[in-house]
What we know:
The chain is of the alpha/beta class. About 45% of the residues lie in helices and about 15% in strands.
Amino acid sequence: MPHNLLKNKKGIIFGALDNKSIAWKVAETVKEEGGDVILTNAPVAIRMGDIDKLGKQLDSPVIAADATSILELENLIQTALEHFKGKFDFVLHSIGMSLNVRKKRDYTNQNHEWTKKGWDISALSFHKLLQVLYTKDALNKWGSIVALTYIAAQRTFPNYNDMADNKAYLESIARSFGYFFGKNKKVRVNTVSQSPTRTTAGQGVEGLENFLNFSEKTSPLGNATASECAHYVVSLFSDFTRKVTMQNLFHDGGFSTTGVSQEIIEDF
Ligand code: NAI
């Protein structure tokens, strides 16, 4: 049931590939809550994925931008400022990719060129995006920026491979840049650490199905779905969370603070 939480708010959503993407659900929920969005993804993802369909559904422009390219990010933010006729209120970074994961290279035997590429896409792109937003002074006072992350940044999950390191870097950027955005722009920057979710990126991780079951049985509230994540992200875009910044916020049904559940013990 919509609450008009984002009435008169507008922003940019990165990373909607298909209807399983977390970003796809966020874009739909933003619209339901009265907000307006521009959708963006890498050019190849726009050609291969379904984002144009979502653009039509939400009556939102789709603008191509490779998030590793400062030039393309500058073009995107400039176009958004023109489209919205001024500054906007929120941005979602929902981007991740590891070539080592994709090509099944173990953490102990990485191709470091692939590691650099994955780091650039999954982690450094967040700094590039924040820097362009900051330099162009693109966000309204009390705006909100969110990036999605995973608990492998804090604890070891062997199959998550180099994405664990990328997520640790991403979370650190949210704190470091969050200071300057808070101090000088009154804009908040947070990461949301989401439960494992069945999406294209999620399915790249080996053994995802078993892991989803383990996580479901460990979390007292069960795994959080992509739609539930969208609701949480919308609350972070809303005016009800104005003083929350530089945080890594777990949205995981209690997984992160559960040692072991009775169900897992009984499985042995
Ligand atoms: P997804 O595969 O639907 O989304 C990943 C997106 O990254 C795609 O839309 C892809 O086109 C985009 N992308 C890749 N390279 C790009 C580039 N150079 N420039 C711009 N965009 C690029 O998968 P999902 O799961 O929705 O992923 C979204 C975010 O959520 C990622 O940061 C992921 O690590 C994070 N996450 C996912 C979890 C899961 O289990 N699925 C759990 C916790 C966090």
